[in-house]
Amino acid sequence: MHISTTSPVDLLKQLIAIPSVNPMGQSVSGDIYYETAVTRWLVGLFEERKIPYRVQEVSPGRANVVAVCHAPGATKTVMLDAHQDTVPVEGMTIPPFEPTEKEGRIYGRGACDVKGGMAAMLSAFLRLTESEATLPNHVLLSCSCDEEATLGGIQRLADEWSNANDSQSEPESLLHRSPDLAIIAEPTELDVINAHKGVVRWKINVAGRACHSSAPREGESAIYRMGHILRLLEEYAEQLESERKAHPRLGSATISVGIIKGGSSVNIVPEHCEIEIDRRLIPGEEGLAAQAELHQFLSSHVDFEIIFSEPWVNVPPLSDTENGLLSKVLLQTIEPVAGERTSIAVPFGTHASPVAAAGVPAVVFGPGSIDQAHTKDEWIEVKQLEQAAEIYYQFCLAELK
Questions:
Q1: Distance (Å, rounded) from C-alpha 196 to C-alpha 193?
Q2: How far is CA 333 from CA 135, 190, 259, 323, in A?
Q3: This protein's superkingdom (predicted)?
Q4: Which of 216, 277, 337, 359 lies in the 20 to 30 Å Cα band around 397?
């Protein structure tokens, strides 16, 4: 392996060519799935350049890769984080793993979400490691796993910070302990996201009593019971939006049902039905409390048992109360490179909220538009990619308070 470039365009093309599809909980197999190949590529890059790094296994075959640019005498550590995985490729109208550059764009799965952001961060990070100047800040580059499904990679990294061993010598200790602030790569069109909703997801199950469909009254339809639950959920969703206090920038909390499963055969009254819940949280809400509140509401309206699973995603919202200074400095860094930008709030979640929940001020910033994320012909503008790389680099050179 030999990668001499620090060009974000060249780095992005190499990353697109390495499949890292998140199976999104599906039972699948094949070389295109999971982050293993990207992890291997990152390890090879850091070893070749003698950059201190470590691999943190999160689950079998899935790992975070964390590298550090050590700045002797520095007191602040900046973390740049980008996830390795992409969404699936079914339905794409372009070759997903054959990066194509044309008319000022680069096409391929992950070009926008978020291998473009990773390439820009890698470019800045490699330039910093090659700099002969005295750097004002340590810089961590976190390439995390499993963002698209569970955010398990960044949560594992953040959980570790509270148990870090500060007795280790630098730069080894820097690879384990919490940074002072963080920038998370997502497509923001070079604006700064400083607030977003959180999300908690779980399953609701109800049971019935099976019987032959020729005599349905001898059984109890779990699907009919779930129909009652669904009507109550519609009522609850309306209450969330009409009766609860909304966040001034993010609006109302929301709830939706994305999947329903039930029954085994058309001639059997179903004994089981299951739905999957997506509950979006605004600042001031907590996932388990939101789940418990809904359970109480539903249980008070039905006379049968309702079973809630443990959440498989529970990501807090990102509040704008602790990252104001970080947003200001980043916006000041952006302007000379890409013109005036602004701070925005968005309804979707990112790695910033688990990082912020661990006590590290965090914002979201990167090249590309969310409108291109997950699309059938995913692409990113070369100009924004190059601008983002320069902004990450300049931010890491700023004197931070």
A1: 7
A2: 17, 11, 43, 15
A3: Bacteria
A4: 359
Q: Which of 249, 258, 276, 257 is nearest to 347 (CA)?
A: 249
Are 34 and 164 found together in one domain?
A: yes
Domain that holds residue 306: 198-315
Q: Which residues pair with 86 in a beta bridge?
A: 21
All residues at 6 or more sequence positions from 199 whose CB lies less than 8 Å from its CB, including other chains: 278, 279, 280, 281, 287, 313, 314, 315, 349
User: What does the block give as tokens for 228?
Assistant: 């009652």
Q: Pick from 283, 315, 347: which residue ends a domain?
A: 315
Q: Which two tokens stand for residue 170?
A: 């630098």
Mean pLDDT of 38-44: 97
Give the Å distances, CA to CA, from 11 to 41, 102, 118, 144: 11, 16, 9, 17
For tokens 């069109």, name the residue: 189
Q: What is the total count of domains within the chain?
A: 2
Residue type, 201: R
If you search the block for the tokens 């810089």, which residue do you land on? 139
Q: In this structure, are 202 and 306 located in the same domain? A: yes
Looking at residue 5, what is its pLDDT? 83
Nearest CA among 338, 315, 318, 344 for reference residue 395: 338
- Residue 166 pLDDT > 70, yes or no? no
Residues whose CB falls within 8 Å of the CB of residue 15, separated by 6 or more in sequence, listed in order: 38, 41, 110, 115, 118, 119
Average pLDDT over residues 183-202: 98
d(CA 243, CA 324): 30
Domain membership of residue 401 (yes or no) is no
Same domain, 153 and 237: no
Q: Which residues pair with 205 in a beta bridge?
A: 274, 307
Does residue 186 share a domain with residue 243? no
Q: What is the dihedral of CA 188, 341, 5, 145, to 10 degrees?
A: -30
Alpha helix (H) ranges present in 60-213? Answer: 115-130, 152-161
Backbone angles phi, psi at 17, to 5 degrees: -70, -10
% the chain with pLDDT above 70 = 98
- Find, among 401, 350, 379, the residue nearest to 81 by Cα: 350
Q: CA-CA distance, 162 to 160, in Å (whole number)?
A: 6
Q: What is the DSSP letter of 86?
A: B
- The mean pLDDT value for 178-205 works out to 98
85 in Cβ contact with 22 (< 8 Å) = yes
